[in-house]
Design brief:
Blueprint lengths: L3 H8 L14 E3 L1 H11 L5 E6 L10 H15 L4 E7 L3 H13 L2 E7 L7 H5 L2 H7 L3 E5 L5 H17 L4 E4 L10 H18 L5 E6 L3 H12 L6 E5 L4 H19 L11 E3 L12 H14 L8 H13 L8 E6 L3 H5 L2 H4 L3
Parallel strand pairs: 2-10, 3-4, 3-6, 4-5, 7-8, 7-10, 8-9
Antiparallel strand pairs: 1-2
Helix pairs in contact: 1-8, 2-11, 3-4, 3-8, 4-6, 8-9, 9-10, 11-12
Bound molecules: pyridoxal-5'-phosphate.
The site of pyridoxal-5'-phosphate has 19 residues, from helix 3, helix 4, strand 7 and helix 9.
GO molecular function: D-cysteine desulfhydrase activity
Family: Belongs to the ACC deaminase/D-cysteine desulfhydrase family.
Keywords: Pyridoxal phosphate
């Protein structure tokens, strides 16, 4: 049976710590819709935003949903220390450091140097400052785009901690590991369908960012298992569409296995678009600047250069390209990222 209740029943079988503020609001973006409608000279579907920038923990964002389940698994394993790897300006590490502080666990974060040529504000401000405030122990990893090497080094850190008598839990997001965090976005899928029903609308398409892919996989599989059949557009923030599609498909299979759901998602239901990625992870292009500007001026929404300005640019770009023509309601899932904005202050406003 594919209903929100049946999915909730499945999710209840997984350990979870409850630290986020849920449900997050669902809002209409009327001024953005009017702006694009005037620009394009045609009627557009209503554009909605799921405010997962308001998940509450340490400035919010998608990682709070994911980490409720990851920390649930860590606690169930008796862990006392969280060990995490990510980019220097990782929202995942910042949110995990906050969870660990709240739960009384030690937290080690490994900062991967993924974005070259960045100055002091990138290396010290934004999420890095918050990591420090939440008491995380910092480790530096010089390589950028080598997920395997970063995970191997993380295992070394964990082994050292074990030798010191700690019980570490590794929070890795590689496509070989169990996608526990995706469960958080299945929970979000239920929330979205309940809120849509309360508003008396149904969504014809959904737009999410796709990086580690926990958000994309959880949203897609969660919506399908809750009975929604519309397209879920993944906007690439780290890899090109081809490699991201492969990643999402393989994580979908792991998630189906974890839920014992059998095969739910066909390969061609995995949609990844890299048109707004620019030269790569953490690098801004014109559409990224425009997204920050339009989100702020028209909707008082804050989107960040690495993730949410790119997915918001995807929403705008797909609208302009006619991908939503004839539809009634389109949902953009805002995944947060606020602290990262301050790491790019001089790139966004150089004066
Ligand atoms: C603010 C924000 N949005 C989106 C993403 C991408 O989500 P995912 O890693 O689940 O694909 C991230 C990942 O770090 C993020 O920090």
């Amino acid at each position: 049976m594919r209903t929100p209740e049946a999915l909730q029943h499945r999710l209840n079988g997984f350990p979870r710590v409850r630290l986020g503020h849920f449900p997050t609001p669902l809002e209409k973006m009327e001024r953005l819709g009017a702006h694009l409608s005037e620009e394009l000279g045609k009627a557009l579907p209503a554009l909605w935003v799921k405010r997962d920038d308001c998940t509450g923990v340490a400035t919010g964002g998608n990682k709070a949903r994911q980490l409720e389940y990851s920390f649930g698994a860590a606690k169930a394993a008796g862990a006392d220390t969280a060990v995490i790897t990510g980019a220097v300006q990782s929202n995942y590490m910042r949110t995990a450091a906050a969870f660990a502080a709240k739960l009384g666990m030690e937290c080690h974060v490994q900062l991967e140097n993924r974005v070259e040529g960045m100055g002091e504000e990138y290396h010290k401000s934004g999420n890095v400052l918050l990591d420090r405030i939440f008491g995380a122990r910092m480790h530096h990893f010089p390589l950028g785009e080598d997920e395997k090497a970063a995970d191997t080094n993380l295992s070394r850190i964990a082994a050292r901690l074990k030798g010191e008598g700690k019980n570490p839990y590794l929070f890795t997001l590689s496509p070989e590991t169990k996608p526990t965090g995706a469960l958080g976005y299945m929970q979000c899928a239920i929330e979205v369908l309940e809120q849509a029903s309360a508003e008396g609308v149904s969504f014809d398409a959904v737009v999410v960012p796709t990086g580690s892919a926990a958000t994309h996989v959880g949203t897609l599989l969660g919506l399908r298992l809750a009975g929604y059949d519309g397209p879920v557009h993944g906007i690439c923030v780290r890899r090109d569409a081809e490699s991201q599609t492969e990643r999402v498909r393989s994580i979908v299979r792991l998630a189906e296995e974890m839920l014992a759901s059998g095969s739910v998602i066909e390969d061609d239901e995995v949609i990844c678009r890299d048109d707004w990625l620019g030269p790569g992870y953490g690098k801004m292009v014109e559409s990224t600047h425009e997204a920050i500007d339009l989100a702020g001026r028209l909707e008082a929404l804050i989107v960040d250069p690495t993730y949410t300005a790119k997915s918001f640019a995807g929403l705008i770009g797909l609208t302009r390209a006619g991908a939503f023509d004839g539809m009634g309601n389109v949902l953009y899932i805002h995944t947060g990222g606020l602290p990262g904005l301050f790491a790019y202050r001089s790139v966004i406003h150089p004066d």
